[in-house]
């Protein structure tokens, strides 16, 4: 092998492709490269050596191009079709990476009827329309959108492998994970029937529609405290419904809620159903059926915010995560514990969970991926 490397190095020096040979050695592709190289005889004339060197240059050029093109089906695959994934697609496409976006839908944003806090839309924008606009923008620059569910991801090999529901295998040099997070639900009647018709999961996103009204928040952790405090600033009345007798939230957050004059707390109380005023399919939420150890009651509300947490959609990705399943990323970066894998949006953000912050990290992920690919010659 030592002699092989010496001879290959000599040929590469003549051909001017030292870097390609070094890359081949590092990636255990010496034999593949060696097959394309002709070592001139020692007694060959200068003209013959030059001729051999020129042929080697041509052969190494083809081998190098084949390696970089055929190594993976795609330079970048983006998993997720929400603001994070689609914004990553816009930036990756503009970097001429021809990204493939794999997603079944537009993520949590499609569960919101209207978005009023996304910059550039002074009169608000329909949530589905916003997703479609970013998708069209990504396609205009060369991104491809594939609507399917992912059944598996293999990050142990290079290139990475992504498996789709139809047993299709797609390989990629880099991967952007933007699969989002799923809100946890109570699982009671009417919850999904009134989704976006009074039942929501994000007060920052949808609370403004119920300003000066009566809003209920369901939960007892930090998320519930944050949503109750936010709504208390804009709503006439806020009722916090909690199934226990103590909060799980931090002491600071709990104290702020307990002292707030505009927040009523119902302890040891569960929601049994979300109700409307009639049987019309277009009806909106109007009341909660509540139960505690002593009695049942009906609470009239304009909106209810289910704030019992989120579950990040990260089960398929074998990267470093915290105890709640959120992906760790390097400080000031979207790089995960696996080189070449980047995370954006709610899969790595348990705090903000906004369309605009997801879009921002999507842009970061695409930029990080493009730089990483350049550094690794892909």
TrEMBL record:
Q: Which UniProt keywords apply?
A: Disulfide bond, FAD, Flavoprotein, Oxidoreductase, Redox-active center, Signal
Could you mention a single GO BP entry for this protein? cellular response to toxic substance
PROSITE patterns tied to this protein: PYRIDINE_REDOX_2
Q: Which InterPro entries match?
A: FAD/NAD-bd_sf, FAD/NAD-binding_dom, Ferredoxin-NADP_redctase_2, Pyr_nucl-diS_OxRdtase_2_AS
Transmembrane ranges, per UniProt, are none
Q: Which residues form a coiled coil?
A: none
Q: Which Pfam families match?
A: Pyr_redox_2 (PF07992)
Report the domain of life of the source organism: Eukaryota
**GO molecular function ontology, one term from the record:** oxidoreductase activity, acting on a sulfur group of donors, NAD(P) as acceptor
Give the signal sequence positions.
1-15
Q: Where is the FAD/NAD(P)-binding domain?
A: 75-361
By sequence similarity, the record places it as follows: Belongs to the class-II pyridine nucleotide-disulfide oxidoreductase family.
Supply the name of the protein: FAD/NAD(P)-binding domain-containing protein
Annotated organism of origin: Chrysophaeum taylorii
């Amino acid at each position: 092998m030592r002699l092989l490397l010496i001879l290959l190095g000599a040929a590469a020096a003549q051909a001017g492709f030292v870097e390609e040979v070094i890359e081949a050695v590092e990636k255990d592709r010496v034999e593949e490269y060696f097959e394309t190289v002709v070592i001139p005889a020692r007694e060959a004339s200068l003209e013959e050596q030059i001729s051999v060197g020129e042929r080697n240059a041509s052969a190494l050029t083809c081998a190098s191009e084949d390696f970089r093109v055929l190594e993976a089906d795609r330079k970048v695959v983006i998993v997720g079709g929400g603001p994070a994934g689609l914004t990553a697609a816009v930036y990756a496409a503009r970097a001429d990476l021809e990204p493939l976006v794999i997603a079944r839908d537009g993520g949590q944003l499609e569960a919101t009827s209207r978005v009023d806090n996304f910059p550039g839309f002074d009169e608000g924008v329909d949530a589905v329309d916003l997703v479609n606009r970013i998708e069209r923008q990504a396609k205009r620059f060369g991104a491809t959108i594939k609507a399917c569910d992912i059944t598996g991801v293999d990050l142990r090999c290079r290139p990475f492998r992504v498996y789709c529901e139809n047993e299709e295998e797609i390989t990629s040099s880099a991967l952007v994970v933007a699969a989002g997070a799923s809100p946890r639900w109570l699982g009671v009647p009417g919850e999904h029937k009134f989704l976006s018709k009074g039942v929501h999961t994000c007060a920052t996103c949808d609370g403004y529609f119920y300003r000066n009204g009566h809003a209920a928040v369901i939960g007892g952790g930090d998320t519930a405290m944050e949503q109750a405090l936010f709504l208390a600033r804009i709503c006439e009345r806020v009722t916090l419904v909690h199934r226990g007798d103590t909060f799980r939230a931090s002491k600071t957050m709990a104290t702020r809620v307990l002292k707030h004059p505009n927040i009523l707390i119902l302890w040891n109380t569960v929601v049994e159903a979300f109700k409307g005023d009639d049987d019309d399919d277009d009806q909106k939420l109007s009341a909660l059926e509540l139960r505690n150890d002593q009695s049942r009651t009906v609470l009239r509300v304009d909106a209810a915010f289910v704030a019992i947490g989120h579950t990040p959609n990260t089960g398929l990705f074998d990267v470093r995560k915290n105890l709640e399943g959120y992906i760790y990323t390097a400080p000031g970066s979207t790089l995960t514990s696996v080189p070449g894998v980047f995370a954006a949006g709610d899969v790595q953000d348990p705090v903000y969970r906004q369309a605009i912050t997801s879009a921002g990290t999507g842009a970061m992920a695409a930029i990080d991926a493009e730089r990483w690919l350049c550094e690794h010659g892909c």
